[in-house]
Structure to design on (400 residues):
């Protein structure tokens, strides 16, 4: 090797060394924290872990020349378990970012831990819009959806179809309250009425008394402000009671796995909003088929969100030349989001990802072409409509 060759090699090594040295411990660790076995396991759970691993593999398994690890944790739907695990991951296990976090109460608690530790947290399964509102953090990113987008999109559509009186069947914890609050506000703002509500405990088995109260209200719409197993059980029981003969069913937060569990016979006609559906475009279909090969089911919106969020995070590390949380967060906000879920999306200053949403109607058994063909597209909701206006934000990060 001549003088110039040796000089160029030395220069290249000198340039590469600082970039590699910027990784905190020569490994990028991604922690997927969710419910692995309970009522949210189907919509996130092991499928979210697989989605993160797919993203790491597609990225090449390394960033800045160093390995990427995916770690899974089960918060068991208990805030103390979730926050304790988040603290251990940040403090002892050197986790760089925590992702997923179904169960909004736990998500809000982990958001506070991440703020204290100055580490990143990305929410793909949590819904409560307070994560980018009064509880916002410079280290928190709300990726796939939030309660405001789902409530605004679905509520407006049903009102336009004549559903001007509502009754809410609400799960009694943070996300249920947010669903009822945000959707109720849309209903009232557009001339509708909320005739009543009832709140049920998490993981309820028998909804009969709650459904009888809904029926007695004589509302035109029954809105299911719950999720996971609670959503599936309540819709099945409502269908068996014959409620949908007189009331229009609306799901505020519904995932593909919920419809699969309920079945089209009971779920047909349900109105819902999502930011992802496996059959929405060719890229989505191709990735979803790969996911199906391992998981034997099509991916949900949160699981697709984990895949796309992981790729965006790794690209930000590559571009920033470091895994420093503040620098990576700034880079993630600076880079546009383009993937099978999103076209020209971006992360707003409050941590909210701006992307379009789609209003769907659940097909009847006769309309479906087979397993997992469950949704009929009704309308596209532009990002600027689906997101809470910054002028209404309670986030301290928003410039006034």
């Amino acid at each position: 090797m001549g003088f110039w060759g040796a000089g160029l090699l030395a220069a290249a090594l000198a340039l590469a060394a600082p970039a590699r040295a910027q990784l905190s411990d020569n490994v990028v660790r991604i922690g997927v924290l969710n419910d692995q076995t309970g009522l949210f396991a189907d919509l996130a759970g092991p499928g979210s872990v697989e989605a993160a691993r797919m993203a790491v593999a597609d990225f090449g398994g390394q960033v800045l020349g160093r390995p990427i690890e995916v770690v899974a944790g089960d918060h068991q739907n208990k805030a103390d378990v979730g926050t304790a695990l988040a603290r251990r991951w940040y403090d002892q296990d050197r986790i760089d970012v925590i992702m997923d976090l179904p169960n909004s109460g736990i998500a809000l608690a982990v958001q506070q831990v991440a703020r204290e530790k100055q580490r990143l947290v990305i929410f793909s399964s949590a819904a409560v819009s307070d994560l980018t509102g009064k509880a916002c953090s410079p280290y928190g990113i709300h990726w796939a959806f939030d309660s405001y987008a789902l409530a605004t999109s679905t509520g407006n559509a049903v009102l336009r179809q004549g559903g001007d009186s509502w009754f809410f069947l609400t799960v009694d914890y943070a996300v249920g309250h947010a669903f009822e609050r945000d959707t109720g506000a849309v209903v009232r703002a557009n001339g509708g009425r909320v005739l009543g509500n009832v709140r049920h405990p998490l993981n309820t088995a028998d909804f009969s008394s709650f459904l009888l109260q809904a029926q007695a209200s004589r509302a035109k719409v029954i809105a299911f402000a719950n999720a996971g197993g609670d959503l599936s059980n309540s819709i099945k029981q409502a269908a068996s009671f014959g409620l949908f003969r007189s009331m229009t069913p609306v799901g505020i937060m519904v995932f593909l796995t919920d419809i699969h569990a309920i079945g089209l016979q009971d779920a047909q006609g349900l109105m819902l909003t999502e930011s992802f559906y496996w059959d929405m475009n060719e890229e989505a279909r191709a990735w979803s088929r790969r996911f199906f090969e391992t998981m034997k089911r099509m991916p949900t919106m949160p699981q697709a969100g984990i895949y796309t969020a992981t790729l965006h995070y790794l690209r930000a590390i590559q571009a920033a030349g470091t895994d420093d949380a503040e620098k990576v967060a700034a880079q993630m906000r600076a880079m546009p989001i383009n993937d099978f879920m999103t076209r020209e999306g971006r992360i707003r200053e409050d941590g909210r990802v701006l992307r379009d949403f789609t209003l769907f109607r659940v097909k009847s058994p006769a309309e479906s072409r087979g397993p997992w063909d469950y949704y009929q597209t009704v309308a596209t909701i532009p990002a600027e409509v689906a997101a809470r206006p910054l002028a209404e934000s309670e986030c301290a990060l928003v410039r006034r």
The chain has a mean pLDDT of 92. The radius of gyration is 22 Å.
